[in-house]
Amino acid sequence: MNTLTVNLGKRSYPIYIGSGLIDQAALFQAHLTGEAVYIVSNTTVAPLYAEPLKITLTQLQKQVHLITLPDGELYKDWSHLQTIFDALLQHGADRHTTLIALGGGVIGDMTGFAAASFMRGVQFIQVPTTLLAQVDSSVGGKTGINHPLGKNMIGAFHQPVAVIADLSTLQTLPARELSAGLAEVIKHGAMADADFLNWIEKNAAALLACESKALAYAVLRSCEIKAAVVAADERENNIRATLNFGHTFGHAIEAGLGYGKWLHGEAVGCGMVMAADLSMRLGKIQPAEAARLKQLIHTMGLPTVAPKFGSERYFELMQLDKKTTGGKIRYIVLDQLGAAVIESVPEALVKETLQASGAT
Fold this sequence. Notes:
CATH topology of the largest domain: Dehydroquinate synthase-like, alpha domain
Number of domains: 2
Distance between the termini: 47 Å
Order of helices and strands: EEHEHEHEHEHEEEHHHHHHHHEEH
Helix content: 40-55%
Number of helices: 14
Structural class: alpha/beta
Strand order of the largest sheet: 1-2-9-6-5-3-4
């Protein structure tokens, strides 16, 4: 097992990465203060992992409740958030209650937002079961739900007390979900670590084959990168925004298609192709470098051609991006492979990228 720390002073917390961690009661015991624990999961993950986790928690003499939500981005909304609150209130949850998010990014975001809101804040633990959640969304305390007009526009910063990433859960991951998670792995290399990007290229086949050793390193290095950025800029005032490389275009794709039509990682993969193209048009990276990143994204089974919404619709959707300031959309672009920056970009160049990407 590897252990990292997200350094946030008194709110620092560990990330545990290893196999079979759901069965290790001692890992959970150190982060549970009250008697009641509520596992929040979904209809896909709960049948696989809820019972083993309940057994682990019962060994600690905890009162364990399971809240099961439908599976999918489509259900990341107010009404299903209310389902969590309903269960907490019906069973008499209090300020010492701990929530555990058992699932992917949707479950992690919703459980975290419920924990941030219930009684004005209770603690929660992330137990991510998808690659995307293990390498990205479970770390950093971003929680929330979607609005029909924009993704993740309603939420709160609320850090977990621990992240327990059990690599064994990745063995039941469908191929499409694996590819979606690999998009966020590629993102970390593209925006922060060129050597890691090289490693991803060399180990693409092993990652796609779900080889344990390759996945373990991909999760570890991604978490190291994200933990360092979050520690430096918890509330995304500056550098943390670079973790959104590919997301300005990607979130527009998700909202424009309707949540759940493409997986988040698929939209981010295509969004990175578009952001790399824009970086090239700004003269920051060479055409060969943009093509290299596009090829890697394609190799990982991710889409590289944008949905055809038209320029006007893309700008309308991107205007709702959280990085927009004073009505101006700010983009995450690559200064070079392995280094991302935040910039305002001439609209004409963005239109060229949209056209080149198949969006118009």
